[in-house]
Amino acid sequence: MTNDKAAPASGSIMVVGGGIAGLTTALEAAEVGYEVFLVEKNPYLGGRVAQLNQYFPKLCPPTCGLEINFRRIKDNPRIKVFTLAEVEKVNGTPGNYNVSVKINPRYVNSNCTCCGDCAQACQSEVSDEYNFGMSKTKGAYLPFEMAFPAKYVISPQVIGTDDAEKIKEACKYDAVDLDMQAKTMDLAVGAIVWATGWEPYDAHRIDNLGFGQYDNIITNMMLERLASKSGPTGGKIQRPSDDKAPESVAFVQCAGSRDENHLPYCSYICCMASLKHATYIREQYPDTKVYIFYIDIRSPGDRYEKFYKKIKEDENVFFIKGKVAEVSEDPNTKNITVVAENAVTGEKTHQTVDMAVLATGMQPTVANAKLPADLKVSEDGFLINDYAKGGQFAAGCAVKPLDVISSNQNATGMALKAIQTLVKR
What we know:
By secondary structure, the protein is of the alpha/beta class. It folds into 3 domains: about 5-105 and about 180-200 and about 365-425, FAD/NAD(P)-binding domain, CATH 3.50.50; about 115-170, no CATH class; about 200-360, FAD/NAD(P)-binding domain (3-Layer(bba) Sandwich), CATH 3.50.50. The chain has helices at about 20-30, 65-75, 115-120, 160-170, 220-225, 270-285, 300-310, 405-420; strands at about 5-10, 10-15, 35-40, 80, 85-95, 95-105, 125, 135-140, 140, 155, 185-190, 190-195, 200, 215-220, 250-255, 290-295, 315-320, 325-330, 335-340, 350-355, 355-360, 360-365, 375, 385, 390-395, 425. Helix 5 runs parallel beside helix 6 (about 270-285) and helix 6 packs across helix 7. The relative contact order is 0.17.
């Protein structure tokens, strides 16, 4: 008799990217018995979801879902997490890959207790990229309150300065290692899932919308950080030029999306994100007027459609069907005037507001950083799964723009595809 029971070819799966899709892929594979190497370029896990104030469908804070996932990872010995890590090279075939991973120095070792003494001793500040440069952070910092791994990071900009020595002296647990060097390790894995995620499209590239030129024009992800209690303003939405509570806000939809000069595709979540942002503003400022300039509102599914209808019923939220052509600033008041042609009336609309928010699209990270592997990539930078070839798969927003629920569903499917690669019949 022949034994046709499935047997593992190689028990290891590498997941590249520690955002919500990467976390889901890693957990689904590990919790059915496979060893997983989770590789993340940032010093923390959580990806873009960690930067949100709230996310759909329940409008709960990211701590709601991430805390559970972090606990599951911590409790699962099959998952090995590598942060500040980058894949440098992939060789081999499905079921038998050799992957070179570079681990960049954190300058803090496993002795760290998150006491914060290093940050208190540090005098220098660096730009806080977690808050999109809207604030500064100490050169020794915890990326965010519930960061995982729960260890401080020392910015490379501080290394070699007197401040670095002060940081080291302040640590009573001998957790600061200023001599830490980058290292490369080789890992043997049977399958790889690329959950490399997305980044906000660079609004500086949209010449007619004034980002970087006028103080009171921000992006949708910047608004997420302003609304968050862990953000640069402690959760208070205010306009950057004078910290004033905005009495009127304009949302510019499809900022760089559905545009042949920028992102030719629809980013799927921008409309819903702006509707969500309208709730942030209206909760803080019941009298503030919100103007949403749109091409068409995309609210896929019954739940999102009901959310859209609820926002439409708000007497202080106004929808203007028209693509914004230009913006300008009053140099005295710093107010922003948004100009669009109303597609319903045919008239040119000029709306002056305290602040404007650009609903910039989702661009795959791969569009700006080529991956060191034999993968199919679309013209727009999204990864194309080659199931016939197998072995390497893409999950979440590396494949297409998705919301959190869809990313999780997709990641679960890719965990299964990776497992199938490891099984010989």
